[in-house]
Amino acid sequence: MNAGRMWVRSNAAYTRRFVLGGSVALAAERAVSPAMSAEAGWPAHINAAKPRVFVTTDAGGSDKDDMQSLIHLLLYADDLNIVGLGSAAARLGFGRISAIHSVITAYEKDYSTLLTHSASYPTPAYLRSIVRAGHPAPQPEAGVSKPTNSSRAIIAAARAASPTRPLWVLTWGSHGDLAQAVHDEPGIVPNIRLISSGRDGQDPNAHRYLLTMWKGRLWWINGAGSGRGIYAPPSGHNNPDRAWPRPNARGHGALGRLFMANSTDLYGAFDGWRRTNGLKMGDTFSVLYLIDPGRNFDDPTARGWGGSYVADSPLYWIDSHDPALAYGGYRGAKTVADHKDIFLADFAARFDRAQTVKPAHTNPTLRG
Which residue numbers delimit the Cellulose-binding Sde182 nucleoside hydrolase-like domain (predicted)? Predict the structure, then answer.
């Protein structure tokens, strides 16, 4: 393989390397010291070197792109410590835990094949055990109402985290369950890092509550336009990538089949007479932020797969207002799109894992 580019992240216990050569040639390695293995109170596969992630999603609601994002997430589950998957409300429709479970079911069918590439993939049983139902509708005017199984799970996961080993909460729909969690247990705020998709989070009241009560105290990337760089053209039209799914997902295991099924008629009845097809997964920029091998997690202003953001106030970052970095009306979209060839090649290699068993005589790695 001819190496084209290399990114390296390292500290005393953790090294990750990603090499891109040609179009989709990928390889990597990670070394984790025994001291950094499973900590008390966490499942055995949880490793302190990997980001701890809780995702709330409106998958099963108004459009299919969250299903695509969940498939992407699980193909990278060996690079993350996924500690919670919660259903969430949305403006149009609402998330359903059945949708989350359907992705886990597809993952289970591919699990034995994925394990030949990485021993760090969590078991399907573990993933099912962390699925929780959240609010089925946006929050009322106060921005909070009553706890849900999802908000309680966020509290539990955040209590087990710390400011130096935080819980990353990725909201792909309503912020309602996170708002409820920090309202009910304010002491968890220093342990949370939030990356939200959509400036109002599809729940204006919960969003307003977080801004009013927690802006400047909660570490928060509030993205809206940047994530559109995954699929939107420079014109800024809402045009999912029609060409990508067929050569890269079709025939690639059960997860590939599910991705294809969720790449047609993306918006259903909400799309009127049109049928919008293709790769979208506009919320995935939050995952890209965490799986980028060269990312400095502490600096949202740095360039990287998940975008580059500007500080609006202490601990609070938003999409860049620089017109040169916008795609049409989508502010900051270019900061993600600039890395599109790389992270989509990496995603394609992940689908290859679901398709092909790695020979037993080679050692599993975490990327490639």
Answer: 52-309
